[in-house]
Amino acid sequence: MATDSLFSYKFSDYVQGAQSQHDVAAKICKQLSLDPNMTVQALVAQHLEGLAVPPKQATIPTQTISHAQYLQRGHVVHSIVHEIVSRHLLHDANPVVDLFSIDAFVARVSSLKDAFPPSWLHALAIKANPLSGILLAAKPLGVGLETASIAEATHALNLGFAPRCVIVDSPCKTTDDLKALLQLGCYLNLDNVDEIHKVHSLLAGTVPDALLGLRINPVVGGGAIAASSTATATSKFGVPWTAATDADLIALYRDHAWLQGVHVHVGSQGCALSLLVAGAQRAVAFAKQINQALGRHQIQVVDIGGGVPTVYNGMAEEAVEFADYAALLQVSVPELFSGEFRVMTEFGRSVFAKAGITLSRVETVKRMNGQNIAVVHCGANQFLRPVYLPTTWPHVFSVFDAHGVLKTGNLVPQDIAGPLCFSGDVLSRDVHLPQIEAGDYLVMHDTGAYNMAMYSKFNSIQAPAVYAYRNHGNNGIQLSLVRTRETVAETLAFWGPTEPLSWS
């Protein structure tokens, strides 16, 4: 769409040209096949019309799986499922576990590191998977962590990550948060003008130990999933960079020389690579404009965020290789590779998701009055997005028998329900799998990101144990306990002390 190209156009190339602004505008309109006489109102209306998605296309259809595809994804996890069952690690007191492949995780992080210059800092989004053992497995690979709260930042530092390798984002920081973060010495992305004023008061003319940047909204549009798109005109994140805010942003950087970075993040799952590239282009254009306007190299850091998507199909192959994304950036935003800026990224889902699976014992199966419902020990207590938005966040499944052997029978439609006390706690409806029986084991694939991290206390169901594993082929599988299953007492402690209310 021509208006898409206009809103992501690299206007900075023409800032110092000899041509008049009217001549340049006419040239750009011709390049983009736009009517030069169109009003701004009509141009925006045309752009919004192009962004509109008919209701029937607003969700992602559930993938239809063939028997061959079912077998293929089952074989991917067969060895670890058989190992868990053989070791009798699933039982009444521990009916569900999360499993995380360190081999797959390390390979994915390594591919990220290899795709970009060694000077780039790749800060993995801690919110995608905050488990300590998993994050520590990434530490020797030379990555950092991206955090979104004072507790997450403290978590990263407690794990031994260097402050300069810890990025702190969040659209809602208190003065106390900012004071603590400034003392920790992390890289701190401020989100709004109020936060800039708070930091200004806290510093009182002193030079901060922390590095500080500002998150701007590049306003490049949204992806296929509105809830995970953060660069629309109505996004809650950052300060919009538009013609109307241009002068104010220059003034903010002029008045606060300690603002040395710019941060963008246009979204995550559902965002095309072209949208991510457009966001990076805007970040670099902004940095160059600020530095030029101020006559000094004030913006030294460009944080381009994350957003590379994954695919929830249970297979090892990713939807996007980091090398392909790097190649697009090198062509479209070569300044990122020139050494002019220190560059940071914030990938999460695309690094963690495929390394994880969840394995639950099937407690019962209901087959009556046309029903075919398997009930398992995980539902909306852990899989909030798949349960509440199943067409947007679809997962796939594999079924293993009581001995941990992949079931290979004919695929029949059945529902998979969770343990919570409400009717909507259903992981999938009409999913085609071999007939599930009580005592079987169900694998939910690709659960390594934003599932282990989103556990809910609803119904006071204990959070599951988590095992990391390495597969050494003929030499067997090694397991490491990342987290034990919560005890009932630990779960109930969340609700406060068992004492009568005390008034004062």
TrEMBL record:
PANTHER family membership: DIAMINOPIMELATE DECARBOXYLASE (PTHR43727), GROUP IV DECARBOXYLASE (PTHR43727:SF3)
Matching PROSITE patterns: ODR_DC_2_2
PTM annotation (N6-(pyridoxal phosphate)lysine): residues: K127
One Pfam short name: Orn_Arg_deC_N
GO molecular function ontology, one term from the record: diaminopimelate decarboxylase activity
Residues of the Orn/DAP/Arg decarboxylase 2 N-terminal domain: 105-352
Catalytic site positions: C421 (proton donor)
Organism of origin: Aphanomyces astaci
Keyword Signal: no
Domain of life: Eukaryota
Biological process annotations from GO: lysine biosynthetic process via diaminopimelate; polyamine biosynthetic process
Protein name, per record: Orn/DAP/Arg decarboxylase 2 N-terminal domain-containing protein
Lineage: Eukaryota, Sar, Stramenopiles, Oomycota, Saprolegniomycetes
Needed co-factor(s): pyridoxal 5'-phosphate
Keywords noted in UniProt: Pyridoxal phosphate
